[in-house]
Amino acid sequence: MSVETSATLSLLLLLISLTVAQDCSQPCACPADPPLCPVGTSLVLDGCGCCKVCARQLGEPCSLLEPCDHHKELYCDYALLSDTETGICMAQEGQTCDLGGVIYRSGESFQPSCKHHCVCMNGEIGCVPMCASDVRLPSPDCPYPRRIQIPGKCCEEWVCEQTPRDHLYQSLVARASQIHPLPSSSPVSVFRQVSPHGPVEESPRDNCVVQTTEWSECSATCGMAVSSRITNDNQRCQLERQTRICMVRPCDSQQEIEIKRGKKCNRTPKATRGMRFELSGCLSTRLYKPKFCGICTDNRCCTPHATITTEVEFHCPEGDVFTKKMMFIKTCSCHHDCPQDNDIFLASNTRRMVGDYDSNM
């Protein structure tokens, strides 16, 4: 290779590195419409705070302009590659998920079947359907619509049949009436006119016997965590798992100094100043002064006893806003039934949090 060629290549590499380094110093030039991201992929701001891009997922290459999905607690690890401008999206330490004996890491996306796309987030599995759930009503040109499974395709599709499959007798009567029609008969009269707002159907909730379990204990003894319950209190009267975020106490608190002289426990301390909750890099839009569960000096532990559940609104750096149900502590109880080695999953599940109800704070 000639000296002139080497000098040209060196100059070109220098210009490229300078361009990359100065990306954030240049004016933002974003497309008019944000990109369409795959199902389960967040739309986030790039590292310069300019344009919204599809977040990089676990194991994918990342950079300043292609950040990792912070909603899934992923971060860009630049130490894995020799290129200092490019890294690999890695998951922060979090609880794994077990689905059918298969273990998924926190932040990992997967498809347990062709009909669902799921993601593991710190022990919780969230899924979105990949198949459409549209409903086709009977019409004169399609009197008996039916979903069928087509070989080679994942999602069921609608087909039109002229006679019902399980009503041969009715089809024979219908054919006879066409040969000798009654004076008032009309081929279209069997179809009820549907209002523009759709048919009025009886809701399954009308005859639903509501059953709801108690909220489970918070999944961590400090910091933001998750609590769940099973209920059929919904329009379909079907059992579903509901979750709420919770915080028993902050991880960086020094509650032992707040125990009064002559006392062994600080049972339910309250935040002295307003604070914002943080969830996946997003902050609550309001300031709160929540109550927490304290600590004891005689080997007892304090856990929530009476709680309420309310909606908390979060605002993300890229401008997105969402709400989450969150547990707020009213009172705590201190006892000797403590988790071993501070492991909340080894605690007894017999303790119940009483008086819990939804609240509009």
From TrEMBL:
GO terms for cellular component: cytoplasm; extracellular matrix; extracellular space; gap junction
Domain (CTCK): residue spans on this chain: 265-339
Major localization class: other
Domain VWFC: 95-161
PROSITE patterns tied to this protein: CTCK_1, CTCK_2, IGFBP_N_1, IGFBP_N_2, TSP1, VWFC_1, VWFC_2
InterPro entries named in the record: CCN, Cys_knot_C, Glyco_hormone_CN, Growth_fac_rcpt_cys_sf, IGFBP-like, IGFBP_CNN, Insulin_GF-bd_Cys-rich_CS, TSP1_CCN
Residues covered by the IGFBP N-terminal domain: 20-92
Gene3D superfamilies, alphabetized: Complement Module, domain 1 (2.10.70.10), Thrombospondin type-1 (TSP1) repeat (2.20.100.10)
Similarity field: Belongs to the CCN family.
Protein name: CCN family member 3
Source organism of the structure: Seriola dumerili (Greater amberjack)
